[in-house]
Amino acid sequence: MKSASNRIKIMWIFIALSLAGAAFLLFSIITQGGTWATSTRNSHLYINGTLIGAGNITDADGEILCATADGKRTFHEDSEVRSSLLHVVGDNHGFISSSVQNQYRTNLSGYNRIMGVWELSNFEQGSEVNLTLKAKACKTAYEALDGRKGAVCVYNYKTGQMLVSVSTPTYDPENVPENVNDSEYYDGVYINRVTMGLYPPGSTFKVITAAAAIDNVKGIDSKDFYCDGAYHTSYGDVKCMSEHGSLKMKEALAKSCNSAFAEIANDVGASKLQKTAENFGYNQKITLGKLGVYTSEIKTVKDDPLELGWAGIGQSTTLVTPLEQMRIMGAIAGDGVPIEPYLVQKVTTAAGFVNETGSAKKGARAVSPETAAQLKSLLRNNFEAQYGDWHFNEGLNPCGKSGTAETDPNKTPHAWFAGFLDNEEYPYAFAVIVEEGGSGSEVALPVAAQVVNALTDK
Ligand SMILES: [Zn+2]
Q1: Could you tell me the distance, in angstroms and rounded to a whole number, from the CA of residue 255 to the centre of ligand 1?
Q2: pLDDT reported for residue 37
Q3: What CATH superfamily classification does 195-343+360-456 receive?
Q4: Which residues surround ligand 1, an ion (CB under 5 A)?
Q5: How far is C-alpha 168 from the geometric centre of its chain's CA atoms?
Q6: How far is the CA of 13 from the centre of ligand 1 (A)?
Q7: Domain limits of the chain?
Q8: Closest of 39, 36, 135, 146 to residue 85, by C-alpha
Q9: What's the CA-to-centroid distance between 254 and ligand 1, angstroms?
Q10: In this model, does residue 1 exceed pLDDT 90?
């Protein structure tokens, strides 16, 4: 009896093990099948490392950005459109790893968990990935950057749709330059600077400092500041670009006075300043579909008046991506709650089934609706008092803040501009950086205006 019961036990162990094995195999097929089907080693889909038979990548207007023809992946007919969209659409060599072509290859190849590569074998075509981007406006952004390194992004802050995402330096994926790997001009060419470029925010950070002050310092609107060319502390000075004399916060933001904002940061205090920045998305994971996005960083600033003064004007250890700058503007425009940006509108199989659709998703609240309204009026005043609406098409009601971010005393600073349109028809938020461009309002703002005007031309 004893040996019989042992045999039964052993049999049960065998059955359990086989079931576990089968379950594991099934699990692997479900979770890894897509990876296997679209692996560059799978010759059904790849020839010499090129994704063949894959579906189209299209823009918001249905323009074909990438397609398969005669067993070859080809890109848009216009070389400037191809160059402007290299970092989002991708290439045929896998150099741009954080791209739609690479990150959505499972969809493009037509693989799905139930049918495997059935779609591809029956239709000789994978799924179409339709993007929210507007190819023509991306081309305008590429032209506006005019050979300089930098990034431009624009999104609809009500729907979340990314309209423009351009990073430079770039190249035409149909004509890869021979010196792409050893020329200074192409330095960092494989990086999408919109999502992975981390830069000091410079004076654009004064928007965060102002938000923290509105929420934490009573009577900040009516407080008098005096700028004699610097904010003085016992540890040293935070220098201003000018001697602004006496002014209030609203004027100090429009004139981008460092003395006033270094003082405001000290009125707020280190931990509250950091908390406000985090509420706006710093130190938080921001996503853009399956593309790689780096997290914008703010390190705990000590309650040292000099360090805190520099932090308040964005010249500390703080780093930000253009995507996050745009999202901050979207949060202010959206009454304190950002709509998360997205890039893929829908994925349609060759058989016509729509698998995946992008939609407006709310992020965590950054500030109260009242604070957002005050920030909006400050950013609108910047245009009325300082930059001038003339940069933009008529009636768009631009709001925004420039920044000139120092990185190295021997180099020209980076030029920033981040803003949004307070406009029902065109609810767009945007960010522009021109590396070593100089003045934000003189260099980055015209780039932003050129792109936004292209999107709003009637
Ligand atoms: Zn000043």
Answers
A1: 8
A2: 47
A3: DD-peptidase/beta-lactamase superfamily (3.40.710.10)
A4: 227, 240, 244, 257, 259
A5: 14
A6: 78
A7: 195-343+360-456
A8: 135
A9: 11
A10: no
